[in-house]
Amino acid sequence: MSQVFFDHNSTTALRPEVLEAMLPFMREQHGNATSRHSFGRTARAAVEHAREQVADAVNAHPSQVVFTASGTEANNFAIHGIASNLCHGQILTSAVEHPCVSRPALAMQSRGWQARRVDVDAHCKLDLHHLHNVLATPTNLVSVMLANNETGVIQDLAEIVALSRQYKALVHTDAVQVLGKIAIDFADLNVNAMTISSHKIGGPLGAGALVIDKRVDIQPLLYGGGQEKGLRSGTENVAAIVGFGLACELAVKSLATFSQHTQRLRDLCETGLVQLGATLFGQQEKRIPNTSFFAFENMDGETLVMALDRKGFAVASGSACSSDSTEPSHVLLAMGVDKDLARGAIRVSFGLENTDEQVQQFLKVLENELARLRNLTAVAA
Ligand code: PLP
Questions:
Q1: pTM, to two decimals
Q2: 220 lines ligand 1 (CB under 6 A)
Q3: How many of the other CB atoms lie within 10 Å of CB of 125?
């Protein structure tokens, strides 16, 4: 039995074309992009071409793209790097950020900064009244994700940016879960910095980027040989960057197909989930098309994930990036979801290769597993 992968928000398979494009840079074209000889110049040209592909994918200028090793690094870079160039003040993050935004913000407290979380409502949308209130305390940086990795809910960034600007705060957004799912226009978003990551869109692990508005002064996180115009030292991971560039180009080309296909699968899935008695989270809001987050009363999410895995379906419980934690999803708790229900949360996130048949099969398996697990609990009681 082959496993069905319904966990594309955690990572994606490398696209075959991407692997093909990367291979020469791990074999014969193994130059260091800072070397002056022909190997180095070939590597440099490949990195700069990838920079253009990444910039084109998000409507930014290539000079605004700084390559990093991951989305996590880009988020840390944004928070530490922007804050380090400003006077101590307040950093605001939404209550539903990925830990690679909330933790660096908290870490800045030891350097004299105040880190504060802005509430979300029951549907995972930022509470703009709360944002307004907390902005009354002098704030230098606001970081709010474009879409949440668990619920898929998309924030009204235009309003968040407008409000933050009134208080002269800079804005960073984590767009890791949006790239390749809906169109991103960096210029139009009008944020000061934006994070993206390669392995969520069929690119390799080991590449990400911070897209930085030229008006922003930012300090490097890593010092050394001065690569990336001194903003991110470290010999460029040429193969990964080349793969990231091509993955961006391909993701943009397949955007409409991805959106239509995964939304159809999600709608099909959610219709079945409701019939099985699931509570769906964030479904009333605008979401990225491929994500569904739900829970069943009196059902442990981890147990269900393991049971579904044994039956051939890979899904996530809460945030995949913190799946070693037994605490309920901080996103659901911030949305005011009851702790017991939150413990049952399951996320499915579809990709282009998933099919209607897989979703129908999943719903059947889920129904059987729910019945079996409930039976076991009843017998044990
Ligand atoms: N931001 C969000 C919203 C994510 O979902 C993730 C990973 O799941 C990250 C950042 C981290 O990105 P990376 O895995 O490239 O470090």
A1: 0.96
A2: no
A3: 21
Atom of ligand 1 nearest to the CA of 177: 3
Same domain, 234 and 321: no
Q: What is the distance between the alpha carbons of residues 186 and 291, in angstroms, rounded to a whole number? A: 23
Looking at the fold, whether 158 and 112 belong to one and the same domain comes out as: yes
Residue type, 366: L
Type of residue at 234: G
**Among 324, 345, 322, which residue's Cα sits nearest to residue 333?**
345
- Return the structure tokens found at 247: 């993955």
Helix (H) or strand (E) run with residue 337 in it: none
Query: What range defines the domain where residue 139 resides?
Result: 16-252
Query: Catalytic annotation on 321?
Result: yes
40 CA distance to ligand 1 middle (Å): 31
Residue 282 burial (10 A CB sphere; 0-12, 13-18, 19+): buried
Residue where a domain stops, chosen among 186, 217, 252: 252
Q: Return the SS3 of 158.
A: helix
User: How are beta strands 4-5 and 313-314 bridged, if at all?
Assistant: parallel
**Which of 311, 286, 237, 313 is CA-nearest to residue 47?**
237
Give the model confidence (pLDDT) of 86-132 as tens digits: 888 899 999 999 999 999 999 999 999 999 999 999 999 999 999 99
Between the CA atoms of 125, 128, 133 and 138, what dihedral angle is there, to the nearest 10 degrees?
90
Instruction: Answer with the one of 188, 222, 252 that is the final residue of a domain.
Output: 252
